[in-house]
Amino acid sequence: MASELALPPRLTRDLTEPEPIPEAGIARAIELMRSGRLFRYGEMGADQNDVALLEQEFATFVGRRYCVAVNSGGAALCLALKVLDVRPGDPVLVNGFTLAPVPGAIVHAGAKPVLVEIGADYVIDCDDLRAKVEASGARVLLLSHMRGHIADMDAVSAACDELGLILIEDCAHALCATWDGRAIGTFGAAAAFSAQTYKHLNAGEGGFLVLDDPDRAARAILYSGSYMLHGQHLNRPSPVEMARWEEQTPNFSMRMTALAAALLRPQLSDLPRRARRWNAIHDRIAAGIARSQHLRLPQRPDKARYSATSVQFSLFGFDEPEIRAFLESCAGRGLPVKWFGAGRQHGFTSAPRHWRYAGPQGAMDQTHAVLAGLCDIRTPLSLTDQDCDLVAAIVREAIETVVSARAETGETGRAATG
Ligand SMILES: *Cc1c(COP(=O)(O)O)cnc(C)c1O
């Protein structure tokens, strides 16, 4: 039948597909495996020290004085809290739209997450930040640039100054992003990045802590587990700072392996090119889905330059069964869409209501209202322009299917999801 022939195409691309590791990284990894020297420290003689070189390169790339490479983004966040003297039981502010390892890092450091509301554009609400500082007495803000959404950093910096807050940036999705020309990751006392597979750099696992203060850098190196071999760091504070902290700092064994660094170094040099392509993919899909009247894309301030590895949008006027029907319709055409509004945590998506270990947080109504409609699509670099157009068409058509089913049952004016 003609209508069968007219069936719109399915997306056959696997959105979970990462980029292959560059050949130079594979070659160096094989060399390291042949030598067996996978630990970052050791009696390596004049051999190249991959982790130490990567730390130097990463610090330069972001524009900070020191970088300490570790085994995950979450570990880097935990170390940031430790070197900023966050003590067990201290309250630490964090925006409510983030990934589970972020409140997790606060708990790992023995501290107490204090969740701050987000607004309709997915970024921190500075009015609620003021209220939460007053209520909790917190002196540290862990600002998560979740999914690369950059808050108004002029407003955040002003609020931190006014409230006497120390800022830590979670840049797991913000490598290459800028605010008013300044790199994200240079606004706070410290910033953390991740090299887990679904970020901008992929070593399977890995993280970076960047900062400028030599005493804090010395402590981070020692905490990360440098044994007595911190002299092998190329990017390190002077022996004076190292000696000051050496016997006061426990070894948490959070090191990056030489293998991870070997895989990452050639990716870092290719990153500006990749980031441009990632943004082109994002912008093409975003423009395509923006043609639907039933969803909203977040407003991005003019000063924010993102580096997107995924696309987010909010369905509005959809109730839960309708959102589930939308997700099913997309999935049926080969497009997995994640949803932050689900009652149960699933895959990589979770929300404040799922972080019971964080302790009571009040209702977080505003954040849950925004998350109730928030959908998320991963955008691997392998997507062609044609794939992007197909992704957008599938989203638009799935929305239309749900909305026309609503019209048929005569229902109008359902409760808005935010
Ligand atoms: C991935 C991620 C992290 C932590 O990274 P891991 O390396 O998986 O520990 C932190 N914050 C955000 C927003 C992330 O997406």
From TrEMBL:
Molecular functions per Gene Ontology: pyridoxal phosphate binding; transaminase activity
Keywords recorded for this protein, A-Z: Pyridoxal phosphate
One Pfam match: DegT_DnrJ_EryC1
Matching SUPFAM superfamilies: PLP-dependent transferases (SSF53383)
Signal sequence, start to end: none
Family: Belongs to the DegT/DnrJ/EryC1 family.
Record protein name field: dTDP-4-amino-4,6-dideoxygalactose transaminase
Organism: Bosea lupini
